[in-house]
């Protein structure tokens, strides 16, 4: 698979300052829920020990599946079982992801609109820098769960779509739109992605990406994630997801720090729907 080409950077911004995509949809242990650990407790990879976890890769798949659903396999064991399954299905998952991606670039009004707006700012998004790959999960300290991500954006590489986390084409559309908002923000403003000055840039672009991508619309929240309430559901979803993403930044101390920064920029960033006229999804 060809290496992603860099997006054109803003004047005065070095596109190589970020080496890997910034995770923007991270959630332990199930997709779209939970929190991201702070820097002092970064997720870590853990080798499987069948005696400890109950997952034995040398046995038949159906036996491990039975152990997983009957609770005789630990949470960590289920993680290793799932990761091994993802590795085996990586080629198929990437083909499906690329098929969805190409369809969205051809037919999705949101994706096509954002691509045109990015092109107008001198950027290019296509199959060379919107790449489908398998994204490994990471075990949280103390066995609290697994941190996962649906995608990420890097000025140096483009957009990463996590093929093994794609549920359906609608889910990929939300993820792609989220990362494209980050790409537009990168080209439109000099975003401080590494929070070298403060975290306000990160908080603002995360608020905008969750607000404009459609991932917080009522049907997605209520029917997929089981989160619903009579008032402020959309705002709460945007705020929660922005806080989770800010917590993943190395400069963020903890959830209190992330919440404080998001609250400081909330009013101005939540009301900024550019490049859209309003929130459509």
TrEMBL record:
InterPro entries: Peptidase_M76_ATP23. Belongs to the peptidase M76 family. The keyword Metal-binding applies. Residues 11-25 have a biased composition (Low complexity). It is found in: Mitochondrion inner membrane. The keyword Mitochondrion applies. It comes from Lasiosphaeria ovina. This is Mitochondrial inner membrane protease ATP23. It holds the Pfam family Peptidase_M76. Keywords: Hydrolase, Membrane, Metal-binding, Metalloprotease, Mitochondrion, Mitochondrion inner membrane, Protease. GO terms for molecular function: metal ion binding; metalloendopeptidase activity. Residues 1-53 are annotated as: Disordered. It is a peripheral membrane protein. One of its GO terms (biological process) is mitochondrial protein processing.
């Amino acid at each position: 698979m060809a290496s992603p080409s860099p997006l054109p950077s803003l004047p005065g911004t070095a596109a190589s300052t970020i080496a890997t995509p910034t995770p923007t949809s991270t959630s332990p242990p199930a997709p779209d829920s939970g929190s991201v650990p702070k820097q002092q407790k970064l997720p870590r990879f853990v080798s499987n020990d069948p005696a400890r976890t109950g997952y034995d890769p040398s046995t038949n798949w159906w036996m491990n599946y039975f152990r997983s659903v009957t609770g005789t396999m630990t949470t960590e064991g289920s993680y290793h079982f799932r990761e091994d399954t993802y590795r085996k299905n990586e080629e198929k998952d990437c083909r499906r992801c690329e098929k969805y991606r190409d369809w969205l670039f051809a037919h999705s009004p949101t994706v096509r609109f954002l691509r045109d707006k990015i092109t107008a700012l001198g950027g290019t998004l296509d199959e060379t820098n919107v790449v489908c790959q398998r994204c490994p999960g990471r075990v949280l300290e103390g066995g609290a769960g697994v941190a996962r991500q649906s995608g990420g954006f890097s000025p140096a590489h483009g957009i990463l779509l996590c093929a093994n986390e794609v549920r359906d084409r609608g889910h990929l559309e939300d993820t792609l739109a989220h990362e494209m908002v980050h790409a537009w923000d990168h080209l439109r403003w000099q975003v401080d992605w590494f929070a070298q000055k403060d975290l306000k840039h990160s908080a603002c672009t995360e608020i905008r990406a969750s607000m404009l991508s459609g991932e917080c619309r009522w049907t997605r929240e209520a029917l997929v994630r089981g989160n619903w309430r009579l008032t402020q559901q959309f705002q709460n979803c945007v705020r929660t997801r922005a806080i989770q993403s800010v917590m993943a930044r190395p400069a963020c101390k903890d959830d209190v720090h992330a919440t404080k920064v998001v609250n400081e920029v909330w009013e101005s960033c939540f009301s900024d729907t550019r490049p859209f006229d309003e929130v459509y999804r």
